[in-house]
Amino acid sequence: MFRSAKDTEFAPLPQSESCESVNLTGNDNDGKVPSRKLPTTFVCLLLGVAFFLSAILGALSGILLTQDPDKYCFQRTSRFSPVTQDTQISYHLTRFNGSFMHENIYRKPASPEVDEAWQALGVDYRGAAVPQDLAAKSGLTNKHVQIQEKYGGGYPANVEGLHHLHCLNLLRQSLYFNYAYYQAHGDGAFSNEEPILQLHITHCLDILRQQLMCTIDVGVLGRVWYNKGNPTAFPDFNTVHKCRNFEGVREWAERHQMPEVVPEDFYVRPDLGLVGEEMP
Description:
Structural class: alpha+beta
Order of helices and strands: HEEHHEHEHEHHHEEEH
GO biological process, one term: mycotoxin biosynthetic process
Family: Belongs to the ustYa family.
Number of domains: 2
Helix content: 25-40%
Keywords: Membrane, Transmembrane, Transmembrane helix
Low-confidence stretches: 1-22
Mean pLDDT: 87
Shape: flat
Protein name: Tat pathway signal sequence
Distance between the termini: 91 Å
Radius of gyration: 34 Å
Region (Disordered): 1-30
Strand order of the largest sheet: 1-2
């Protein structure tokens, strides 16, 4: 006959069992089923491990829930950069201007106004000095050029993203309908002889190829209809992207530019064993 909960009597384990073992069968030694006992110390150990793991998981969950998602995303997808020491990387949704027929200032034929727009992006900013204590984390070693301690020390370096824009600008200048304009002015890359200019242009082309492959965009381009007389499908390039705060990075690079003219002894003289025979 079943007994109700209130009729059930609960009694502590006998003193001899409380510190030595736990009965797993619910039968005493006088029953027909043999008693299987597990050492209490083992049970306590299991409970302790379970409690410890629960505490760790709770702490990790708290960290993940309170951590800045933008910072976490940046750390997971990028290597360390001195830019982030005093610039907060954030993300926002932006719809690309993918217009095919309507040119913006960056697409127009060569002119002072177009050059001014590109220059405002920071395409020709001078490098910044990366402090000694951030050099290793930034990928800089004793093989790289260093600045004399009396001028502040550190390593001269450029923000890679702005170099990519510099390269894109050079490709724009090299387009068949712009080339003659910039060659006639003879500024920047166009002050070099033709073979060097060609190497500069192809260097930029391949750097951008590698960058685009490294950060391949997995978004998709749908199609829209145009031409009511004869409806035709055309790719919709006005897509939405999650972008970093470019202006924050550009402003960092602008603020940290080294002097336009530096003393002759600005850089530490190199160990001749580290000097290559030609440009890398």
